[in-house]
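Bumping with the actual sequence this time:
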Amino acid sequence: MFSGIIESMAKVVAIEHEQDNVHLTLTCPFVDELSIDQSIAHNGVCLTVVRREGNTYTVTAMRETLERSNLGLLKVGDEVNVERSMQMNGRLDGHIVQGHVDQTATCIAVEDQQGSHQYTFKYESSREMVKHGYFTVDKGSVTVNGVSLTVCRPTADTFQVCIIPYTYDNTNFHAIQPGTVVNIEFDIIGKYLARLHEIQD
């Protein structure tokens, strides 16, 4: 479980394909603190550390993960947002994030608001997806590339978020531009409510 508060960015230093799996080797400031089997969210995707060598660590993404996320688009040199699993004795500064990305969205607009940046994202939507809780609500929570954010002005298939300078500088939001594909995880509470409504119908 995660909170959506990004600890750092990790840089991809190697990519290895093995059948349908992709092994990503990265480096980040807290490599020395990592252990095998530890869970880390990468752009919001929960992955397990499978190897540590020197100042790098390796995680493996399987086919379903690659199909639902932007991890298959990564190239050597790219930066990803990383967060270690939440400590139960700490504050929940973001919201409850599972690290189970639901789908991708595409940035369709970025607006400099003289002190913050406003991003608009568009995602695939259908009645069936909405029934499963894949939607956003005004002032609700959404996770974009692992960052816990508040939704503004949602429509049936778009939403906006506002990014403060600290988040812009310390996550890979500074690299997002129109056309960039991001990972999104919808609010788990909304998914449970949608499922309960479906059962009651």
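The tokens above came from a reply further down the thread. Residues 188-200 form the longest helix (13 residues).
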